Amino acid sequence: MTHPRTGRSRERVLTMRGIGKRFGAVKALTDVDFWVNEGEVVALVGDNGAGKSTLVKVLAGVHPPDAGTIEFDGEPVDIDSPADAQDLGIETIFQDLALCDNLDVVANLWLGRELRDGATLDEVDMEQRTWTLLRELSAKIPSVRVPVASLSGGQRQTVAIARSLIGEPRVVILDEPTAALGVAQTAEVLNLIERLRERGHGVILISHNMADVLAVADRVVVLRLGRNNGVYNVADVTSETLIAAITGAVDHSGARWTPPAATPVPSTAPGRVRPAPAADPSAADPAVPEEAPVDGDTGGTVIRMPRTGSRRLPREDGRR
């Protein structure tokens, strides 16, 4: 559970409107809206095949969108390649991390961006800057001169995150950063995400773990079958509501999830900054019945399940 954070105005960094993407006859994304503010963690969740990876690859410049617009700092932009994304200040950390196991931490952080002192590499300056960055992230790495292959899963994730910050990005995308990690390593990575928020980065977190999402995210965007199916503020949502949106027990795919205007967004709750939910507040959540009715014939409690009829619980004496 995160501690309350001081509310403050946050400027819009990224806005995606009406994004569509096809692969032959398959519609991977249809009319998707998405936005992120500075110093905000936005979780992108959905079942397998929901379109999460495709949306991230559109943002990272891997796949150009077939429809829709992308705005960065309020200006329309085209992201046609990963180089375009990096030039804008968008860094993506994929699941495989793309680290060189035979190189040490310093070499991995500065690979392709080495600092030079004349004709030779400035190893001293690179090591000093590496330690400075790791301290800012409160990272737990014993030495920056050991091969990455000898580090734990959480430490390797730390190196990948630190490498993405070398270019001072505005938006950092994390694809399943806690997958296959133990409890202690997961906590370490979640602390890193908190540090990214404190540094003012906009963070996009892709995860299937609802506990991780509720622990660090400010807002949750749900995708289902390539469409928006809900935008929720973490302070006002439960894991049951998110699972219902992910599985389709509640269907908001026909609603428009239009981002608010690209202006500073004031805090509406102590410690968190979140846009108002886009869903109709008068619409009841069909996944949560107000009161379970009782069957007059058997005395059993009837639970109304959304769109799938009903189920009857047995009485205490075992009769149905």
* Count of beta strands: 14
- Give the ordered list of helices and strands: EEEHEEHEHEEHHEHEHEEHEE
Please count the helical segments.
8
How big a fraction of the residues is strand?
A: 15-25%
Q: Segments where pLDDT lies below 50 for 5+ residues?
A: 1-8, 262-295, 298-313
How does this model look, in words?
The structure is a single chain. The protein is an alpha/beta fold. It has two domains: 193 residues, 3-Layer(aba) Sandwich (Rossmann fold), CATH 3.40.50; 32 residues, no CATH class. The chain is 25% helix and 23% strand. It has a six-stranded mixed sheet with strand order 6-9-10-3-11-12, sandwiched between helices. It has a four-stranded antiparallel sheet with strand order 2-1-4-5, with no helix packed on it. Strands 7-8 form a two-stranded antiparallel sheet. Helix 6 links the parallel strand 9 and strand 10. Helix 5 packs parallel to helix 6. The protein is globular, with a radius of gyration of 22 Å.
Task: Briefly say what this structure is.
This protein has 320 residues and is an alpha/beta fold. 25% of the residues lie in helices and 23% in strands. The N terminus is likely disordered.
Characteristics of this structure?
320 residues, 8 helices, Rossmann fold, 4-stranded antiparallel beta sheet, disordered N terminus, 6-stranded mixed beta sheet, globular, alpha/beta, 23% strand
Topology:
Layout: E1 12-23, E2 26-37, E3 41-45, H1 52-60, E4 67-72, E5 75-77, H2 82-88, E6 90-93, H3 105-109, E7 116-117, E8 120-121, H4 123-136, H5 153-164, E9 171-175, H6 183-198, E10 202-206, H7 210-216, E11 219-224, E12 227-233, H8 239-247, E13 302-304, E14 310-312
Parallel strand pairs: 3-10, 3-11, 6-9, 9-10
Antiparallel strand pairs: 1-2, 1-4, 4-5, 7-8, 11-12, 13-14
Helix pairs in contact: 5-6
